[in-house]
Design goal:
ten-stranded mixed sheet; VC0467-like
């Protein structure tokens, strides 16, 4: 399959249409940390049927959706946002997308009404690769690499994201985006 082979922080990894790993079927993952020591990312399109207040005690009332970030560290909660310098300690991972930051300040900003649900996404767990593992998976055609757009993280409907990003990559990928989830039924 045609594909880029160079991944970098801020890219989107799209699971190949025939990936069998149940965690990653039609997954779109934002790469938030890419180093020789390993790679971290969050699955952007696997919502969990709960709100952030269902998971966190002493958190201000907030209509924030929770997503499955990946199978690693499922006892952790992370967040991506577009608040930038408004939230100290945030790390820029892509144009218009930041990871983490001062949690007490986040709670204050939410209580003050300065953060809206469409500006932040919460994730249980993350996706991680040891040194060289992601490159090997890319060489084995497990992932398609795409450039990110902040709208993918905060505005695109999660159930359409994998297909949308593939279609935006061009003709051959647009065709692949139309494949059903399980081709054994056809």
């Amino acid at each position: 399959m045609l594909k880029d082979k160079e991944v970098k922080q801020g890219d989107i990894l799209l699971a190949e249409p025939f990936m069998a790993d149940s965690y990653f079927i039609k997954a779109a993952i934002l790469v938030t940390d890419y180093h020789p020591t390993g790679t971290v990312g969050f699955i952007l399109n696997k919502p969990i049927n709960m709100k952030v207040n269902d998971l966190l005690l002493n958190f201000p009332e907030f209509d924030g959706d929770v997503f499955f970030g990946g199978p690693v560290g499922t006892d952790t909660i992370h967040f991506l946002h577009n608040l930038g310098d408004l939230l100290e300690g945030s790390r820029l991972v892509a144009n218009g997308v930041y990871w983490g930051g001062n949690f007490d300040k986040l709670k204050f900003l939410i209580k003050s009404g300065l953060v809206q649900p469409n500006q932040i996404r919460f994730y249980v767990g993350y996706s991680g690769w040891s040194p060289g593992q992601l490159e090997e998976e890319i060489n084995n055609s497990s992932w398609v690499i795409s450039h990110n757009d902040p709208n993918y993280v905060f505005k695109s409907p999660s159930d359409q994201l994998w297909k949308q990003v593939l279609m935006n990559k061009g003709e051959i990928y647009a065709i692949l985006s139309e494949l059903p989830e399980n081709t054994n039924y056809n």
